[in-house]
Amino acid sequence: MSELIRRYAERIDALGVRQRVLIFLFLALTLVLIANAAFIDPLRAKHKRLSAEVAQQEKEIATLQADLQRLVMGNQVDPDAANRARQAVLREELRQLNLRIVEEQRKRRRKASHTTSHARSKLKVCTVSFKVSVGCAATPSSARAQ
User: Among residues 115, 119, 133, which one has the least CA distance to residue 143?
Assistant: First the structure.
């Protein structure tokens, strides 16, 4: 191997300065291209891939932040507000119906009370009339007159 290198060195020494510079530039360019292909291109590809991943993650973070903001803002608005309002309206309607029922019951009690008191007064008239032997056909005023 050293014999091969020594022969190439003798051939280069035999060349002129201009040809030596061209060979040096050619070898330097070849070395740069090999280094580029071996080291820089894979790093550049990795950088590009990582940049794309970072951009994707930034988009996901922005989406998550927007979702979080919506959730925070959503908690300030009661999702059951419409149901609570409807419930309040229905409770008020139920209260009104209960009041109507109570009023109807009072009217019936008064009517029943009035009917029983009227029947009691007739019963008293009949009793008074019976004692007087007039019969039940007599009115309270005629019973008193007798």
Answer: 133
Who's near 12: CB < 8 A, 6+ residues apart? 20, 23
Residue 139 CA to residue 145 CA, distance in Å, equals: 10
DSSP code, position 133: T
R_g of the chain, CA atoms, integer Å: 58
What's the total number of domains in the chain? 1
Based on the number of CB atoms within 10 Å of its own CB, is 46 exposed (0-12), middle (13-18) or buried (19 or more)? exposed
The overall pTM is greater than 0.90: no
Compute the mean pLDDT over every residue in the chain, rounded to the nearest whole number.
Answer: 83
| Within-domain flag for 116 | no
